[in-house]
Fold this sequence. Notes:
Elements: E1 4-13, E2 16-22, E3 27-31, E4 44-47, E5 60-63, H1 90-103, E6 107-110, H2 121-130, E7 134-139, H3 149-157, E8 161-165, H4 170-176, H5 182-195, E9 200-206, H6 210-214, H7 216-226, E10 230-234, H8 239-243, H9 253-268, E11 272-274, E12 301-304, E13 309-311, E14 323-324, H10 330-336, H11 338-353, H12 362-365, H13 370-376
Parallel strand pairs: 1-4, 5-6, 5-12, 6-7, 7-8, 8-9, 9-10, 10-11
Antiparallel strand pairs: 1-2, 2-3, 12-13, 13-14
Amino acid sequence: MKQLAIYRYEYNYAGIRGIGITTDGELVLTKQNETIPQLDSRTRIIRNEEVLDAFSAPIKIFLDPSTKCPLKCPFCLSDSGSANTKGIDEAEIERLSNQIIDFGVLKVKIGGGEPFVYPYFYDLIKKFNNSGISVSTSTSGITFPTITQEKLNILRENRVKVSISLDGGEQYHDKTRCFPGLFKIAISSVKTLKENGIKTELRSTIINTKESYDQIFELDKISKKLEVPIRIRSVKPKGRAAVSNLSTLFPDEKYWFFYDAVRKLRNDNPFINLEEVFCYDSSAHYSVFGQKLDCAAGTRSAYIDWNCHFSPCGFIDSYFPSETLKGTDIKMLWKNGYNFKKIREYFKTENKNSKCSHCAYVNACQGGCPSVRLATKTPIDPRCPLQKKTYLNEGS
């Protein structure tokens, strides 16, 4: 077995008695009937208190420390922009990062806003990596034309995985991101990262328009040409995407054409990575960690925003509101926070009463995204591929 950077004892939630992460950023699970791996002095060992219906700590935290961004994309989930100067200050990010480390969180995704303009971004990277935490980040690449070799070295040496946003062909991407030349910057950024031995991928946001759906054919070609993985995701009903009605909530004919087309492309392109609802019948995606688990929100992941608000998930915090971390502790809110308890109970009730509970594919698609179910007030995700219903969508 590869060297473990962190190993955390668990209490058999979903049949798992321990979980760790290697120095290469790979998760290692110990199931209920398996032996705990041999640990040594190089492994940071964590023992937390038991948490009902969840892991004892998040496996992954999504951290958006700032809303400052040179762009103002019409589907931005965090409503970021150049005029937004809000962010977590140095003293508070120091306190929060210490809590994240002590809690035994295994992965941190640093977002934004644009993370590369956050003043403590590189300090956070080094601090988390030195504690064994696997770090990833996402960016438009907007700052990369001026990135120094020293900063590229920090990304490589601290094992940072970088996602570059690319939503389609050149004309479409520049138009939808409202920044001429951004496509070329994104492509150049990917090449720079690869040349420097930094793990990278493309990340595509699909919105509810025919033009966006049609971009998958361009994205297929681009990922093959660059030979990098590409994550294709439908935008969630959050932030400016919700205000502009750009999320696919009730699918129409053009959505199902896109759905079928992107699944076919994936069969011939190993670089394409799709969200769970697209992979409901794939054995490779049949279950999370090989176990029956609920949505990650509040059970194995959590979200911290620019104002130190802590919630089960940034996509559903209007239904399960965040609670402030200022003056309190992540451990306490994870275990006893009102909305963390509430969402865990929601999953138990939903999964027991929903038609999805009797579906052979529920472990793969997990009943669809709660953000869509809550926004549409439907018991199951209207995008269910087994039902494949078509709705009148006036907003498209």
